[in-house]
Design goal:
The protein is mainly beta and 77 residues long. The protein is built from one helix and seven strands. The protein is globular and about 35 Å long. The mean pLDDT is 91.
Length: 77
Amino acid sequence: MTWVLLKGITRHGKNRVHQHGERWEIVGEGQFQGQSAWNLRSERPTEGPRGAKVRDGRWVLKQNDPNFLLTELENVV
C-alpha cells in the first residue's frame, strides 16, 4: 500500500483534511478532469450516509491540484 499526507491549501481542502485526516491511501491512478490523478481513500472512517461510518474517497491531481498539496509518500508492506 502507498500512503500520502495531504495538506489543504484552500478552505475546501483544509475542511476535508480536518474532517477525514491527513493520511490517505492511494487506491488507483487515472484521469480526473482530463489530468493525471490519484484516487485516494481516507485512512479512517468518518460520518457517511444515514450515520454509517465510511472511508472518504476522492481524486487528487498529481500536479497543481487546486485544493491539496501532497506532502509525503510512504510505502507500507
